Amino acid sequence: MNWNKRNHLKTTVAGLGLMMLTACNGIFDDIYDKPEEIVPAKGQIVMDATSWTDWYYVDLDRLHQLATSGDEAALLKAQTEFEAYPIPMQATGDRVDTPTTADEGKDGKVIATQGKKAGQYMYWFDVFGVGIKNNTFSFFEPTAGQTAPENWTFAVHRNNVRTNGGAVLETTYTSMDELPESSEAFRNMTFTEDEWSENAVWNSQDQMLQGYVPSQGIEVNKVLSSWLSMEIPPMPPSFSLNRHVFILRLKNGSYAALQLENYLSPSGKKCYLTINYKYPY
Q1: Is 0.70 topped by the overall pTM?
Q2: Best CA proximity match to 87, nearest among 41, 56, 44
Q3: To the nearest whole number, what is the mean pLDDT of the chain?
Q4: Nearest partner of 80 among 247, 275, 281, 228, judged by Cα
Q5: Residue 258 in contact with residue 246, Cβ under 8 Å?
Q6: What is the spatial distance between Cα 277 and Cα 106, in angstroms, rounded to a whole number?
Q7: Cα separation of 202 and 158, whole Å?
Q8: % of the chain surpassing 70 pLDDT
Q9: Domain segments of the chain: what residues?
């Protein structure tokens, strides 16, 4: 075989190899780089709540209306697309470095250091010691209050949940199919309303390794928020899923059943929530 033929053969083989590599890259891109999206089933919400700085609102009445109307495209959009409502960060007044009140919760612990004012609360957390339950107030900066849509039932920020004037009961059921036929079975039980918090709605991780984390001062529902628990240590944080079904009593007296089925995206991102719901219940 002469020199020219050998060069032509090498060029052809190299070209074929490049074509095969390109083709393989395209195939593997589909497999590895573009995980399959989660498509919600009937009575299900898929929400990307991974943002540290936003609240996302769910309107169960709207979902029910769309489900009964038969508009599947609009229903799918309502099950998967949620407008972000940013947590206010801009200070509207002077920084306060000492607690001015000491309002206590039912367990006797201080839950409000500034009279339940809207703002950013910096706390120190014992992230490398006994854990985040050991924490102390550092300083406060007032901000505007949290914005919200006109109609909503509950709102989600990562592993935090709050209700629109509702109250929540945790059941022992671990499947929506196990529930009693109606909510009548729960009507005389004790439901928990939202409570003030100034160290649970974390909105930045910039200083977390030093133990300092800013939180939004706002009311949250601690019972419903328990469907996804965060533990520190270890670092990075670990998450624990509570599969119990929760009963939400809305402010209008109607009921809904809610269950967190999954908190991971197809690519493994945490706080990407798949929520089962039954409404009205």
Answers
A1: yes
A2: 56
A3: 89
A4: 275
A5: yes
A6: 30
A7: 9
A8: 85
A9: 1-34, 35-278
